[in-house]
Specification:
The complex is a heterodimer. Chain A is an alpha+beta fold. Chain A has two helices and three strands, in the order βαβαβ. In chain A, strands 2-1-3 form a three-stranded antiparallel β-sheet, with helices on one face. The mean pLDDT of chain A is about 95. By secondary structure, chain B is an alpha/beta fold. Chain B has five helices and eleven strands, in the order βαββαβαββββαβββα. The mean pLDDT of chain B is about 95. The chains are: A alpha+beta, B alpha/beta. Chains A and B meet through α1 of A and loops of B.
Chain lengths: ~80, ~220
């Protein structure tokens, strides 16, 4: 069982990296790109005995207490079987 | 005699600068405290120095906040002891919840290392009371995540309760909201600031604009 965690800036928080990359994509000639934002991707591998509910609980707690800064970032995650 | 503790994390690198300044002041004693220790009851003022604790992994200050010593930093601060966090120390104080808001990447992402000029917004605190009215302080900044962010409600609250300690004179180097360079907690016994007073406490090094902050603490 693993959690795939995505952390991105909340709306209205300055993301200069995303902006700069968006500008670069435009100058490559790619059009119709409105906005680029850059965040973090974190994978947590749980031990195999863990139930899905418990995994959700741990992922939620990890995000809330450490992985994301609640003032500026939002998070989402999916729990999936390890390959 | 005022007893200062300087907390040392893996990656702290301004701890010796702060030690040098404080050990040269009269009527003060100073000691390094390794982050694995847990007791700060013998100290009057706690300094969280600058540097790159835990390599700035995840977010600057995010991991240091879980070091064993931080429980006593928080509990001693809640008892009213003075705590000053400089640069990475400011980031740690925000991550542990002693100070509100957030420190984002600088507006132009670059790491900034330069001298800045500060206005002292609140001179009625343990950290600033010896600074003359209208006096501007020169000291260096050296950071990549120093762009202070507060939403409108928090900014109103900081302003109405006089919690803004320092502002950058124009031009604002990092994009911080309302030019903020340093803030206080609600009770004014915790200060966090991005500029480095410990690197500007000897005129032979270009400026002694930071020395008055340490003197103010000592004489508070």
């Amino acid at each position: 069982m693993k959690a795939k965690i995505y952390i991105t800036y909340k709306d209205g928080i300055l993301d200069p990296q995303g902006k700069t990359v968006g500008g670069a994509l435009n100058s490559m000639g790619l059009s119709n790109i409105e906005n680029v934002s850059i965040g973090k991707f974190i994978e947590i591998e749980f031990d195999s005995s863990l139930s899905k509910n418990k995994a959700i609980e741990l992922a939620e707690k990890s995000c809330r207490q450490l992985l994301a800064n609640p003032n500026t970032e939002q998070y989402s995650y999916e729990i999936c079987e390890s390959e | 005699m005022m007893r200062f503790a300087i907390i040392v994390f893996p990656g702290s690198n301004c701890d010796h600068d702060a030690y040098h300044v404080i050990s040269s002041m009269p009527n003060s004693a100073v000691k390094f405290i390794w982050h694995k220790e847990q007791d700060l009851k013998d100290y009057d003022t706690i300094i969280i120095p600058g540097g790159f604790s835990y390599g700035d992994y995840l977010r600057a200050g995010a991991i240091a906040r879980f070091s064993p010593i931080m429980n006593s930093v928080v509990s001693e601060a809640k008892k009213g002891k003075k705590v000053i966090g400089i640069c990475n120390g400011f980031q740690i104080l925000i991550e542990c919840g002693l100070l509100p808001g957030a420190l984002l990447n600088n507006e132009k992402i670059k790491f900034l290392s330069k001298e800045v000029s500060l206005d002292v917004v609140n001179r009625d605190t343990s950290f600033t009371h010896l600074i003359a009215k209208g006096e501007e302080l020169l000291m260096p900044i050296a950071h990549k995540q120093g762009n202070y962010f507060a939403d409108k409600d928090l900014l109103d609250q900081l302003e109405s309760n006089n919690q803004i300690a320092f502002k950058y004179k124009n031009p604002n180097p990092n994009g911080s909201v309302s030019n903020i360079a340093g803030i206080l907690n609600h009770d004014k016994n915790v200060l966090g600031m991005m500029p480095h007073p410990e690197r500007a406490s000897d005129s032979a090094l270009g400026s002694d604009g930071g020395y008055k902050i340490f003197q103010s603490i000592l004489e508070s």
